[in-house]
Specification:
Blueprint (H helix, E strand, L loop, with lengths): L8 H4 L4 H23 L6 H14 L8 E3 L5 H15 L5 H20 L13 H8 L19 H18 L5 H17 L2 H19 L7 H24 L4 E2 L5 E2 L5 H16 L12 H22 L5 H4 L2 H19 E2 L12 H14 L4 H18 L23 H9 L4 E4 L1 H10 L5 E7 L16 E3 L4 E2 L13 E7 L11 H8 L4 E4 L4 E7 H5 L17
Parallel strand pairs: 1-2, 5-6, 5-9
Antiparallel strand pairs: 1-8, 3-4, 6-7, 9-11, 10-11
Length: 563
């Protein structure tokens, strides 16, 4: 481990606090700009579209989001509040999610730079180089998992709050036990307790556990009493907020259902996990074109040095707490390790690279462990930073020259171009309708509400063999991330025709609405408008759709039923 004398101001250049702040701000702006630039050239998916629509609703006064149903991680006081602020005071439209993602990533970069230098060592700009190389210059060339940072809500805001709390904890660890630092711990924990439990796992729990462990070993760092008090007060307030939201008729959230993956799934999960780690570090050149693999090859040697450091550190671990790290590094190590194994062994019913978003804290935390504890070779990181900056500058405008850059970046068929769908709907004078989950809200959001498409599904309940009737229709609202008012029959009463965006073939587990299942429930459509190889718009008379009572059963007596 480097000593204080090894990193002197004379060797690395002295930066006063204002210069450090300017240094951090510059590279945070660069990382946010990169995130925004590339994010604007990728299609959004329905998760992002639904949260954007919720943010619009909040910006128009529905702060507790009455009538909304969310996934277990509701992101209410994180991404939704952030986007609502941009919409309310910035007048932003569909660009709000991309700008919000850029702000979060800029914030992550800023906090990571703040944490790159441990307080027990003289500050060195050299320690910031790994953060600049791997975080401020994110790999967005043919990379899928790292593309999550260009979208919300995918826990990047939660990571930002956690890093802010770690900065406060570091200040407390050097005996700056100010009220402001403890207040910051509580403020960062409050939206996490309220909106995204994921942050409790990688931020709150590691800080408390490591504090208790250090106290048992007789080392004075962050007092467990102060931590527990700050987090405890934040938790109590969050519970009171939840009670208020519930009793005021605010949003509801689904419960979390997770399990361990089966043994048969382990090989593929290990491959995806390793692939995602390579991807986040920007060294996944496998299967990429030679030209686009250049940034990966530039980062390869620094990445191998990083891996060698971790290997030696774990192999030669010391007898005391968490392989000899300081309090913050130990918390980073524990939080990152928990996330790594949780992502590896848990099953959240997400496909392919979808699950990789949960490895983001592991990626950031382990970089910080390296910067805080290794002897950094200046030129080993400075030269790649310089070369990567040249690559970004030279390719900055390339992605805008071809429409092929608008792609399904995650490779899970959740993103799509809706322009041609909107064109067909306009040509046929269609305004309201239904679709599968991954087609529905993207049409609504991208068209800025000119066309309203609501997600529905085919329910699994058994039906009788009687002729088609009110009790036999199996179509029902897909209430995952949505507003219940969307499915009121009164919304459709003034329409002569209702459209259904359907897939000709496919798997229902992909949340696709299959054409044959719609026909089985409503009969042959009045008109079929083809949309390419596997998509069509099926048009029905409104009265025929109203005969399907299962689309409206939740409305009975004004209660939320049959969800």
């Amino acid at each position: 481990m480097a000593t204080r004398q090894e990193y002197t101001g004379e060797e690395n250049g002295y930066f006063s606090f204002p210069l450090r702040f300017l240094f951090y701000t510059l590279f945070s702006f660069i990382s946010g700009s990169i995130c925004y630039h590339y994010g604007m050239h990728f299609y959004i998916d329905s998760d992002e579209a639904n949260y954007y629509l919720a943010a619009q609703d909040m910006a128009h006064g529905n702060f507790t989001l009455k009538g909304w149903v969310f996934s277990p991680d509701n992101f209410w006081l994180i991404d939704i509040l952030g986007m609502a602020t941009l919409i309310k005071f910035g007048g932003l439209g569909i660009t709000a999610p991309h700008l919000m993602a850029a702000i979060w990533w800029a914030g992550v970069t800023f906090c990571a730079l703040c944490l790159a230098n441990p307080p027990q060592k003289t500050w060195s700009w050299v320690r910031c180089l790994p953060v600049i190389l791997f975080i401020a210059f994110p790999p967005l060339y043919e990379h899928r998992p790292s593309g999550f940072i260009t979208f919300v809500p995918y826990h990047v805001g939660t990571l930002f709050y956690g890093l802010c709390g770690l900065v406060a904890a570091q200040m407390i660890s050097i005996r700056k036990n100010s009220v402001i630092n403890y207040l910051l711990l509580g403020i960062t924990a409050l939206p996490i307790f309220t909106s995204d439990f994921f942050g409790v796992v990688f931020y709150v729990m590691p800080l408390v556990f490591v504090s208790l462990l250090f106290r048992l070993k007789g080392e004075n760092t962050v007092p467990p009493k102060g931590l527990i008090t700050a987090f405890g007060i934040a938790f109590i307030i969050s519970e009171l907020v939840k009670i208020y939201v519930h009793h005021s008729g605010g949003f509801v959230a689904h419960t979390l259902h997770s399990k361990f993956i089966s043994i048969e799934e382990m090989p593929s999960k290990i491959i995806y996990t390793m692939k995602s780690v390579f991807d986040f570090f920007g060294v996944d050149f496998f299967g990429h074109k030679v030209g686009s693999a250049i940034p990966d090859l530039i980062k390869l040697i620094p990445f191998l040095v990083f891996c060698l450091f971790l290997y030696k550190k774990i192999k030669n671990r010391k007898a005391y707490c968490l392989i000899g790290f300081d309090y913050i590094s130990s918390s980073l190590f524990l939080g990152g390790t928990i996330i790594f194994f949780a992502s590896l062994f848990s099953d959240f019913s997400l496909y392919k690279e979808d699950i990789i978003r949960y490895l983001l804290p592991f990626f950031v935390f382990y970089i910080l462990i390296y910067t805080r504890n290794a002897q950094i070779n200046k030129f080993l990181f400075l030269v790649p930073c310089f070369l990567i900056s040249i690559v970004y500058i030279s390719t900055w405008g390339t992605i805008t020259k071809t429409k092929s850059s608008f792609k399904d970046i995650f490779g899970v068929h959740h993103q799509m171009d809706t322009a041609y769908i909107e064109e067909k709907l306009k040509e046929n004078n269609l305004r309201l309708g239904y679709a599968g989950y991954w087609e529905a809200s993207v049409v609504t959001a991208n068209s800025q509400g000119r066309f309203l498409s609501r997600a529905i599904k085919v329910s699994e309940r058994e039906v009788s063999n009687s002729p088609l009737g009110h009790d036999q229709c199996q179509l029902s609202p897909y209430v995952w991330i949505s507003k219940l008012d969307w499915y009121k029959k009164s919304n459709f009463e003034n329409e002569k025709q209702i459209f259904f965006i359907t897939h000709i073939y496919g798997e229902e587990h992909d949340s696709w609405l299959l054409q044959d299942r719609v026909i089985n429930n409503l009969g042959q459509p009045d008109k079929i408008i083809p949309l390419g190889d596997n998509l069509a718009i099926d048009v029905y008379n409104t009265e025929r759709v109203f005969a399907c009572q299962s689309l409206y059963t939740w409305e009975k007596h004004g209660k939320r039923v049959d969800l």
